[in-house]
Amino acid sequence: MKADQISQTAAFVAIKFYGLSRIERFQPLFDDSVVTFYEKLIRSLPAPLRYYHYWLDFDWVRRLYIWSEELLLPGDLLHIVARKWYIQRMAKQLVDEGYDQLIVLGAGFDHLSYHFTQHGIDCFEFDAPKMAALKRHFLSNCYPGQPHPDIITSHLPADDLKTEFSDHPRIDPSRKTIIVAEGFFDYLAPETVSRCLQQIRQYFSHNPALISTHFALNELPSFYRWVFKSSVKLVNEQLQFDRSIDSYKHLLSETEFEISQLHDAQEISTEIQKVTHTNLSVLDGFYVLLAHQQSE
Ligand SMILES: C[S@@+](CC[C@H](N)C(=O)[O-])C[C@H]1O[C@@H](n2cnc3c(N)ncnc32)[C@H](O)[C@@H]1O
Asked: What is the pLDDT of residue 67?
């Protein structure tokens, strides 16, 4: 992805969340403030992306959108709501255990750091320059007077994560830190992912917790794998971290991260269906995990 482009994949994560959050049965999963965040966000996107705010308010448009999405890549829509639901609950659990610094890598238009900033947690977001500028603009326009996360410009691999951590006056290596990589590593080359993980381990002294998503594209039937890759390519982005879950687990263990929770698509589908009674399912090959740096 180029440094000066708006990430359409990030925009569509937010648009899909917004669309599903218009449907009553998904609303109990999130506080009203989260639903409002995405509503304000979609309205503030550059045209034509912001037109989704108007159209997705109509039931018939949502039905058509869901039908076409499910035809092309079944499970893609629900996996968005599911990952935000899982990640927010996992982060909350860590905060309750005393983690008090949150860093979101490739944050895009995500609400998480804004949400935890309102709960007194020190939050930092990293993203490419254009995205960081859009997010800052959105927060200052739509949430003036509220505390905001620090938004740090970083374009990998040209920039160096460890240097950026240490150059920032408020990122404290000795605090219990949560690192979130939601839909982020997929867009980096394997060696860049490995370097990120090593640098997290080297910089934070107090066993950082990593919450990460993973797409094991090898678990998708070939047509859906092609749809996934092509839709990302179409918006000038590229899936580069095409690894099986075992290969990602191996990389985590090489960089001394130990997995304590691993949720797969089947488990996530079952859990979210119990709460929402939806008949949608979650994309095959999708995982959310929690890993901690192993103790010395
Ligand atoms: C699919 S979006 C996910 C956004 C957000 N984490 C979410 O799940 O809602 C990927 C994000 O990674 C960022 N990104 C992609 N490649 C990057 C790179 N090489 N350096 C920095 N950020 C990058 C994009 O700008 C975008 O915000």
From this structure: 97
Residue 2 domain-assigned (yes or no): no
Give residue 296's pLDDT. 54
Residue 218 lies in a domain: yes
What domain range includes position 234?
Answer: 8-293
Query: Ligand 1: distance of its center to the CA of 125 in Å?
Result: 11
CA 131 / ligand 1 centre spacing (Å) = 8
Rounded to the nearest 10 degrees, the angle between the axes of helix 32-44 and helix 8-21 is 130
| Segments of the chain scoring below 70 in pLDDT | 295-296
Ligand 1 nearest atom to the CA of residue 180, by list position:
6
Number of domains in the chain: 1
Distance 277 CA to ligand 1 centre (A): 31
Kindly report the number of other CB atoms within 10 A of residue 218's CB atom.
Answer: 14
| Distance of CA 46 from the midpoint of ligand 1 (Å) | 17
Mean pLDDT of the chain: 96
Q: pLDDT (tens digit, 9 = 90+) per residue, 233-253? A: 999 999 999 999 999 999 999
With a 6 Å cutoff on the Cβ, whether 212 touches ligand 1 is no
Residue 264, both tokens? 């797969």
The answer as to whether 1 is a domain residue is: no
Angle between helices 76-96 and 265-276 (to 10 degrees): 90
In short, whether 106's Cβ falls inside 6 Å of ligand 1 is yes
Report pLDDT for 2. Answer: 87
Q: Is residue 133 part of a domain?
A: yes
Q: Domain with 139 in it: what CATH number?
A: 3.40.50.150
Any ligand 1 atom below 6 A from CB of 164: no
What is the Cα–Cα distance from 78 to 69, expressed in whole angstroms?
A: 10
- Whether 285 and 215 have beta carbons less than 8 Å apart is answered as yes
Q: What is the pLDDT of residue 295?
A: 56
> Is pTM beyond 0.70 here?
yes
